[in-house]
Amino acid sequence: MRPDAEELALVREGKSVAAITHHRERTGASLLQSKGAVDRHPAREPPCAWALAIARRFHQTDPVDDLHVPPGPGAPLGIRVPAGELVEQFSRSSGPGGQGVNTADSRVQLSFDVRATTALSEVQRERILERLAERLSGTVLTISASEHRSQRRNRTAARQRLAGLLRDAVIPAVLRRATRPTSGSRRRRLEGKRRRSETKRSRRPPGPE
Length: 209
Description:
CATH class of the largest domain: Alpha Beta
Structural class: alpha+beta
Order of helices and strands: HHHHEEEEHEEHH
Number of helices: 7
Number of domains: 2
Largest sheet: 4 strands, antiparallel
Number of strands: 6
Strand content: 5-15%
CATH architecture of the largest domain: 2-Layer Sandwich
Shape: elongated
């Protein structure tokens, strides 16, 4: 039997399996009320198992893997952020979604505590805290992604965005050293000025005889 609107609302609100089962028993619903329900929900399956199936459908997500930042300036060996240091939160998105907009938790917020992480060296940590200071809430960097209809694709987009920010933030600053102009550059500058002066002189109208 398909879940009704009230049951789905209970699941999205994070209600327990017992609450969902109580709702089904209170409304007098039965696993064998609709045609073909025996095939989909065998009679030997208790109501709590059916409620668990609903909960898994709405709450189960793929396990979070370690975040890998490719090698680059400031991180020659790359950066590997342990999965335990990444926090994902899901909410309803107001972006594209068709019939699923505002009904599915497709919006993803990926949070990463820069100060508490063990994936960064002290130099990398200070660079990130300094360069991303405007984006930090305390020492936590949060990335949001809601441009896709699928939660899975938004999760991937958020991870890619976080990896890109970390990669760019750890790049060491390039110090510009003051240098004296070379003899060749001075000669070319004077020749260019001379040619420009001759061009302007040739454009002047001829003077009176």
